[in-house]
Write a sequence for this structure.
Protein backbone atom coordinates (compact mmCIF):
# COMPACT_ATOMS: atom_id res chain seq x y z
CA UNK A 1 0.00 0.00 0.00
CA UNK A 2 1.33 3.38 -0.99
CA UNK A 3 1.81 5.73 1.95
CA UNK A 4 0.36 9.19 1.43
CA UNK A 5 2.66 12.03 2.40
CA UNK A 6 1.08 14.12 5.13
CA UNK A 7 0.70 17.86 4.83
CA UNK A 8 -0.58 20.59 7.09
CA UNK A 9 -4.18 21.59 7.68
CA UNK A 10 -4.87 24.27 5.08
CA UNK A 11 -8.54 24.39 4.11
CA UNK A 12 -12.07 23.97 5.43
CA UNK A 13 -12.15 20.63 3.64
CA UNK A 14 -9.09 19.52 5.63
CA UNK A 15 -10.80 20.53 8.85
CA UNK A 16 -14.03 18.77 7.87
CA UNK A 17 -12.03 15.63 7.10
CA UNK A 18 -10.29 15.83 10.49
CA UNK A 19 -13.52 16.49 12.41
CA UNK A 20 -15.42 13.74 10.56
CA UNK A 21 -12.78 11.07 11.10
CA UNK A 22 -12.33 12.13 14.72
CA UNK A 23 -16.03 11.89 15.50
CA UNK A 24 -16.26 8.52 13.76
CA UNK A 25 -13.85 7.35 16.47
CA UNK A 26 -15.71 9.17 19.25
CA UNK A 27 -19.04 7.59 18.30
CA UNK A 28 -17.51 4.10 18.58
CA UNK A 29 -15.50 4.72 21.76
CA UNK A 30 -16.86 2.80 24.79
CA UNK A 31 -16.92 5.69 27.27
CA UNK A 32 -17.50 8.75 25.09
CA UNK A 33 -19.67 7.17 22.41
CA UNK A 34 -22.78 6.78 24.59
CA UNK A 35 -22.55 10.41 25.76
CA UNK A 36 -22.13 11.91 22.30
CA UNK A 37 -24.65 9.58 20.68
CA UNK A 38 -27.27 10.48 23.30
CA UNK A 39 -26.73 14.24 23.02
CA UNK A 40 -26.28 14.63 19.26
CA UNK A 41 -29.31 13.82 17.13
CA UNK A 42 -28.12 15.32 13.84
CA UNK A 43 -24.51 14.34 13.15
CA UNK A 44 -24.30 16.14 9.81
CA UNK A 45 -25.23 19.42 11.49
CA UNK A 46 -22.87 18.74 14.41
CA UNK A 47 -19.92 18.05 12.09
CA UNK A 48 -20.59 21.31 10.23
CA UNK A 49 -20.78 23.26 13.49
CA UNK A 50 -17.49 21.79 14.68
CA UNK A 51 -15.91 22.43 11.30
CA UNK A 52 -16.96 26.07 11.76
CA UNK A 53 -15.44 26.03 15.26
CA UNK A 54 -12.07 24.66 14.12
CA UNK A 55 -12.02 26.77 10.96
CA UNK A 56 -12.44 29.83 13.17
CA UNK A 57 -9.67 28.65 15.50
CA UNK A 58 -7.17 27.46 12.89
CA UNK A 59 -7.83 29.51 9.77
CA UNK A 60 -9.34 32.61 11.41
CA UNK A 61 -12.50 32.44 9.33
CA UNK A 62 -15.16 33.79 11.64
CA UNK A 63 -17.93 31.21 11.21
CA UNK A 64 -18.45 29.93 14.73
CA UNK A 65 -20.88 32.04 16.76
CA UNK A 66 -21.87 29.76 19.65
CA UNK A 67 -20.87 29.54 23.30
CA UNK A 68 -18.97 26.26 23.85
CA UNK A 69 -18.77 26.79 27.62
CA UNK A 70 -22.53 27.02 27.99
CA UNK A 71 -23.04 24.04 25.68
CA UNK A 72 -20.65 21.84 27.67
CA UNK A 73 -22.17 22.95 30.97
CA UNK A 74 -25.60 21.83 29.71
CA UNK A 75 -24.20 18.49 28.58
CA UNK A 76 -22.55 18.00 31.96
CA UNK A 77 -25.82 18.84 33.73
CA UNK A 78 -27.63 16.29 31.55
CA UNK A 79 -25.22 13.67 32.90
CA UNK A 80 -25.59 14.93 36.50
CA UNK A 81 -22.07 16.30 36.78
CA UNK A 82 -20.48 12.93 36.04
CA UNK A 83 -18.23 14.04 33.19
CA UNK A 84 -14.67 13.83 34.46
CA UNK A 85 -11.15 14.65 33.42
CA UNK A 86 -10.96 11.03 32.18
CA UNK A 87 -13.56 11.86 29.52
CA UNK A 88 -11.53 14.86 28.42
CA UNK A 89 -8.34 12.77 28.40
CA UNK A 90 -9.89 10.19 26.11
CA UNK A 91 -11.21 12.98 23.88
CA UNK A 92 -7.76 14.59 23.68
CA UNK A 93 -5.97 11.31 22.96
CA UNK A 94 -8.35 10.55 20.10
CA UNK A 95 -8.01 14.11 18.76
CA UNK A 96 -4.22 13.91 18.81
CA UNK A 97 -4.22 10.45 17.21
CA UNK A 98 -6.54 11.58 14.42
CA UNK A 99 -4.43 14.65 13.71
CA UNK A 100 -1.27 12.53 13.65
CA UNK A 101 -2.88 10.05 11.22
CA UNK A 102 -3.92 12.75 8.78
CA UNK A 103 -1.77 15.86 9.06
CA UNK A 104 1.65 17.20 9.87
CA UNK A 105 2.77 20.78 10.32
CA UNK A 106 2.29 24.01 12.20
CA UNK A 107 -1.54 24.12 12.02
CA UNK A 108 -1.71 20.48 13.12
CA UNK A 109 0.38 21.34 16.18
CA UNK A 110 -1.75 24.43 16.85
CA UNK A 111 -4.87 22.23 16.70
CA UNK A 112 -3.36 20.01 19.40
CA UNK A 113 -2.31 22.91 21.64
CA UNK A 114 -5.65 24.67 21.35
CA UNK A 115 -7.55 21.46 22.04
CA UNK A 116 -5.47 20.88 25.18
CA UNK A 117 -6.10 24.42 26.43
CA UNK A 118 -9.78 24.39 25.52
CA UNK A 119 -10.43 21.03 27.14
CA UNK A 120 -8.84 22.22 30.38
CA UNK A 121 -10.82 25.46 30.28
CA UNK A 122 -14.10 23.70 29.47
CA UNK A 123 -13.63 21.21 32.29
CA UNK A 124 -12.91 24.00 34.78
CA UNK A 125 -16.00 25.91 33.63
CA UNK A 126 -18.13 22.77 33.91
CA UNK A 127 -16.86 22.22 37.44
CA UNK A 128 -17.56 25.83 38.41
CA UNK A 129 -21.07 25.47 37.04
CA UNK A 130 -21.61 22.39 39.22
CA UNK A 131 -20.64 24.36 42.29
CA UNK A 132 -22.95 27.21 41.33
CA UNK A 133 -25.77 24.75 40.85
CA UNK A 134 -24.72 22.81 43.95
CA UNK A 135 -24.60 19.50 42.13
CA UNK A 136 -21.20 18.21 43.20
CA UNK A 137 -21.04 18.68 46.97
CA UNK A 138 -24.00 17.54 49.05
CA UNK A 139 -22.96 19.79 51.97
CA UNK A 140 -23.31 22.85 49.75
CA UNK A 141 -27.06 22.29 49.92
CA UNK A 142 -26.99 22.60 53.71
CA UNK A 143 -27.27 25.89 55.52
CA UNK A 144 -23.89 27.49 55.98
CA UNK A 145 -24.21 27.37 59.80
CA UNK A 146 -23.12 30.96 60.15
CA UNK A 147 -20.11 30.53 57.88
CA UNK A 148 -19.88 33.07 55.10
Amino acid sequence: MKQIEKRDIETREDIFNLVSQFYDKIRKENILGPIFNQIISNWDEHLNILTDFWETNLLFVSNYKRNPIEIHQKVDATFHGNITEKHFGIWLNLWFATIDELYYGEKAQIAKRRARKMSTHLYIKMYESRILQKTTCPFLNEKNNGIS
